[in-house]
Amino acid sequence: MADRTKIWIANTMKELMKQKPVDKIRVTDICRAAEIQRPTFYYHFKDKHDVIAWIFFQNAPQEDLLDREAAVRAMREMKKELSVFYQRAYADVSQNALWKYMLEYFCESYSRLAMERLHTDSLDAGIAFAIRMYCYGTVGMAMEWALSDNITPAETVVDFMFRSMPFPVHQIFFPDQND
Asked: Which runs of E-coded beta strand occur in the chain?
């Protein structure tokens, strides 16, 4: 039941985002459109940005972050779903904007994977910096591509991203390609 309610609230948010930008949507609007009470909303989500992040993470790649085909599928899906959701979510520049959730998600995922591969509990400052720089760049470029590039195929964007990976990070994730 709880999952159905979350999905209902998320679908309502997507519908509202077709009508107006994120900064014009209030929790009251979501509750009214979903025909739920505020406590029900707050039981499932902390705010409207949490709903947007939940929608993203439901569609986020659950596969290997370093798999080219998985990345291409995710980029294509983002472009396909771009209709309005991603445009409005990416246009939101508030404190809790989607790109910040994405950045945190990818930085944590790549850092965790790097620590596993290096058999350590913490990362060297240089590697941590390189991972964050890569994540900032790829999230930013993915947003730019999704919002304004109707020419470059997803495969090309993913190839550019992987080739732009800082060398110390590339050494960790693609050791066989460092010759």
From this structure: none
CB 46 within 8 A of CB 129: no
For residue 149, the SS3 value is coil
Nearest to 14 by CA among 92, 88, 105: 88
CB 41, CB 30: distance < 8 Å:
yes
d(CA 90, CA 84): 10
Centre a 10 Å sphere on the Cβ of residue 134 and count the other Cβ atoms it contains: 22
Domain spanning 2-50: CATH 3.40.50.720: no
What 3-state DSSP class applies to 76?
helix
pLDDT in tens, 154-177: 999 999 999 999 999 999 998 887
Residue 23: alpha-carbon gap to chain centroid: 19
pTM above threshold 0.85: no
**Is 13 within 8 Å of 84 (Cβ atoms)?**
no
Where do the domains of the chain lie?
Answer: 2-50, 64-177
Burial class (CB in 10 A: 0-12, 13-18, 19+), 26: exposed
Give the C-alpha separation, 41 to 160, whole Å: 40
Question: Helix, strand or coil for residue 77?
Answer: helix
